[in-house]
Specification:
Blueprint (H helix, E strand, L loop, with lengths): L2 H17 L2 E6 L5 H13 L3 E5 L1 H11 L3 H4 L6 E6 L4 H12 L6 E7 L2 E4 L3 H6 L3 H39 L1
Antiparallel strand pairs: 1-3, 1-4, 2-3, 4-5
Helix pairs in contact: 1-3
Amino acid sequence: MKKEDKKAIIEQLVGLLGEYNHFYVADAAGLNADQTSNLRRECFSQDVKLVVVKNTLLHKALEQKGDYSPIFDSLEGPTAIMLSNSNNVPAKLIKSFSAKNPNGKPTLKAAYVEESFYGADQLETLIAIKSKNELIGDVIALLQSPAKNVISALQSGGNTIHGVLKTLSER
């Protein structure tokens, strides 16, 4: 590969890393063509971009992007990066897809999620991280809870008073 081609690929990787908030480094080696095609289809349907890269080119792109040194150790062997704006979707994808395959691929090598680095052994932790929309939903539910309690108490109190008045009027 020519030096100019490598430079162009590195620039393209830097651009991709800038477009997405989170990325996972995975090992998808050992998947046959049909399995790879299914993985790509599943990634596409969940807005995850799957790119197979050379380790040295990804290493150089990460160096240009900032301090990603904790990920450098995982850049060995075949590497695919899964880019997403949702923090836990690639982790769920890796777990569900590897469970379907007899060889257990793809596997997580490392991840950069919510401005933190995660290792290969932290897949369950990554799955448990809530997305921004899920957290906003939880906050809204918590804020609505006291108001719902007050309205419920007022409505039940009104029914109680109505019941008492009705009983007294019947007597």
